[in-house]
Amino acid sequence: xxxxxxxxxxxxxxxHYYPAGIPAGDPRYEGSAEIQRLRQLLHASAIKPGAWQDxxxxxxxxxxxxDVSDSLPRLYRPSYRCEVAxxxxxxxxxxxxxxxxxxxxxxxxxxxxVYAHHWKDDRAERESWTRFPPLPPAFQAxxxxxxxxxxxxxxxxxxxxxVLFTPVPGLQPLRGQPRHRSPWLEELLF
Amino acid sequence: xxxxxxxxxxxxxxxxxxxxxLWPDDPAYQSSVEAQRLTQxxxxxxxxxxxxxxxxxxxxxxxxxxxxxxTTLLWAEPCYRLRISLPGVVxxxxxxxxxxxxxxxLAPVYVLYASHVLDTGPFKEAWTRYPPLPTEFQAxxxxxxxxxESTLGxxxxxxxVLFTPIPELAPxxxxxxxxKALLIDLLFTVDRW
Lengths: 190, 193
Description:
The complex is a heterodimer. By secondary structure, chain A is of the alpha+beta class. Chain A has helices spanning 7-15, 27-31, 33-43, 49-62, 137-154, 161-164, 185-189, and strands at 68-71, 79-85, 97-106, 111-121, 126-131, 157-158. The mean pLDDT of chain A is 92. Helices cover 35% and strands 21% of the residues of chain B. In chain B, strands 1, 2, 3, 4, 5 and 6 form a six-stranded mixed β-sheet that branches.
């Protein structure tokens, strides 16, 4: 049966994997049926490790002049991630700034998100930012190419910024509760 | 204590507390005379917290309308640290702006810098700035300078001294490679967000 990937459908989806009204530090949180279900999914995700490595290889081939790094889902983060640096990065040991496009693929639903990441640390002043779409122009060619690769490889659907930042009252992400607000779908799905 | 607070004099001073040419993972680093001296200094400072606590109390009175955090970590870093938010910053708000005061244990010197965080969800940014601080931080900065200097009698270091490279030394925390350390890392801390 096709999964409902609308904002209400995704809110229902995350409620299947996060217990309502239980803080993440409470033993009942980890013992809940929802978190058990989420843990099972993290161990048997829709994307098999081999398929993910094949995808990363495709990304490396497509962005041959850029640094590519990736990470698998973790106990506290139900998503695959792949980061592609913009061309022209400084050599690694002395790198003092970086610009990259990052994609996140959820384990909970066939959806993904892309954002831009910038950082600078010259050992004196430091700065960093992340932006969800619309991305700055310098990031848009990478964004389009990465989105195309994800959709052609996995058939996942990209979520709009509006849907990503829909508040989901009553739930707590694996990493703990954001202070003084409800978590966003983005924090629960990825 | 150096009578002059020049980069050269401070550099000479910190060589008493950090071994040359060693990284903290090297067992020889922790067993060196210099590292032992710093360990003893930190232990003594942990036993004599009252002057610092008194200063924090005075700052709490002076900045009663702002949030304050004493984030001093005397187990690892040779400095006291007080963070004071700008007026209007609230817990859970999207914007979080602070002036941070670092006071060295190694010399009668301090540093102030600005820290900014904005998190709207789709857009997140964070930065630190050293003098000249952005305009919106300057009133806070002036009040804090006055309080620090009148209460503690310490001197503020200019950027050109703070950011003097000290390539032969490495701070004990912060994962700073040999060759990369700055005077500010060694007099205060590497953790400056």
